[in-house]
Each structure stands twice: as structure tokens, then as C-alpha cells.
Amino acid sequence: MDNNKKGYKTLGIMGGTFDPIHYGHLVTAEAARDIFNLDSVVFVPSGRPPHKKDYRVTDAESRYLMTVLAVVGNPHFYVSRVEIDREGQSYSIDTIDAFQKKYPSTELYFITGADAILEILTWRKVDEIVRKCFFIAATRPGYDLKGLSAEFQRVAEVLCDRIHTIEVPALAISSTDIRRRVADGESIKYLVPESVEQHIYKNDLYTGAR
Ligand code: NAP
Q1: From atom 21 of ligand 1, which residue's Cα is the shortest distance away?
Q2: pTM for the complete prediction?
Q3: How many angstroms is it from 164 CA to the middle of ligand 1?
Q4: CB within 6 Å of ligand 1 — which residues?
Q5: Where are the domains positioned within the chain?
Q6: Are 84 and 64 in contact (CB under 8 A)?
């Protein structure tokens, strides 16, 4: 999972497909760490995302490697293989259970995109998940936060005090746009760390993506 033997008081679990990881994700994790006073943030690339049917997700090892390359310079960031090494679909409840087992007295914060969290009622064992951790929903600029919280209220009254939202201007960057740029031969410089950019070109990723 991670090699840190310290007892965390608070730990961020940064969940995403990371296809590829970009600066928007890194800024989100650092903002969450800062605002919520998290001891560390563990990035958890999805193994087999349960909701991804619209495009072919890049091989898990490649997404894991890009995530490791991206976080290497931050002493508070780690990457976990927990979803990649687990058989079957990647359900967040199984991931949260694994972290809770490893760190029983740590307060867990699951960080991900607001669009993903809006679907939370469709997630496996949602009642259990919201009891076991807090959620940090990161929004792109221009997202109507009032509308978002109204939507959360509509979704379920009980979830509201467990879900926090943060607006992250750097989330103007998106993985979808990066895949499209590579396919169209456009530059992705300064959208992803240089090592991630090199990995993408060296392994010919996204050239057929649209
Ligand atoms: P997604 O639908 O691909 O992403 C939705 C939006 O959120 C996109 O705009 C995406 O931008 C953004 N996003 C995704 N991860 C982010 C992050 N860590 N920080 C900031 N923005 C983020 O979402 P996904 O990657 O499939 O799923 C997100 C997380 O929710 C994963 O950990 C996944 O396992 C979990 N999930 C669990 C269940 C379940 O347990 N049943 C179901 C669905 C999702 P980018 O494309 O630029 O990243």
C-alpha cells in the first residue's frame, strides 16, 4: 500500500482512473491536503473501473507507473497498488475497507472529482462508505457549487455533512482533453509532468484515442 509506518491522524485517498494523471489531479491532492490538514495523500489508480464503458481504459500498470512518476517529488504523496492487485471490479468500498484495516484509528478522506461523487448513490454499499470516510469532491472552474450542494441534498440528506467540495482552477485540465490532444498531435507540455509526457510518447499511448 505505502511504506509509511507512521500512524496517520488523517489520510487522503485520491481515487481516479488517472488515464493519464495530470497537474489538475496533483493540485487537487495538494489543495485537499492543505485545506483538510491531511498527513498524507495516497493515490489509488483504479484497477478495473466499474463505470467505464465509453472508451478502452489504458493498461493498469501503465496508469500506475505514470502516477508513481507524477508524485515522486512530493514527500506527502504515495501511490497504492491496492485496486490494481485486487481481482475483479474496483469498488471503492473494498479500497476504503483495506485502508481502514491498515490504519484503524485514522480519519479517512476520499478525494475525487465532483462528477464521480454525484453518482455515489449508485456505488456499491454506499451507506457503509459514507459512515467510514469523508468525501472531498473537487470541481472544475465555473461549476455551480450551490447547484452542486442542492444536488447533493436531493441525492441524500444524510450524505451532506460527509461531503466537502473544493474548487480547483487547475482542473481546467482533463484526462479526456489530454488523450484527444495526443491523438490530434497537439502539445501536452505543462499539462502533465515531463516524465508522464515522456512515458506517453515512449509507449505510444493515446495515439488512436478520440
Ligand atoms: P470519472 O468518471 O472518470 O471522472 C469524473 C470526473 O472527475 C472527470 O471530470 C475526472 O477528470 C474527474 N476526476 C476523476 N478523478 C479525480 C480526482 N482524483 N481528482 C480530481 N478530479 C478527478 O471518475 P473515475 O476516475 O471513473 O472514478 C473516480 C473515483 O470514484 C475512482 O476512485 C473510482 O473507483 C470511484 N468510483 C467508485 C465506484 C464504485 O465503487 N461503485 C463507481 C464509480 C467511481 P479526469 O478525467 O481529468 O480525471
Answers
A1: 113
A2: 0.93
A3: 16
A4: 14-17, 25, 28, 46, 49-52, 90-92, 111-113, 115-116, 119, 123-124, 138, 171, 174-176
A5: 10-175
A6: yes
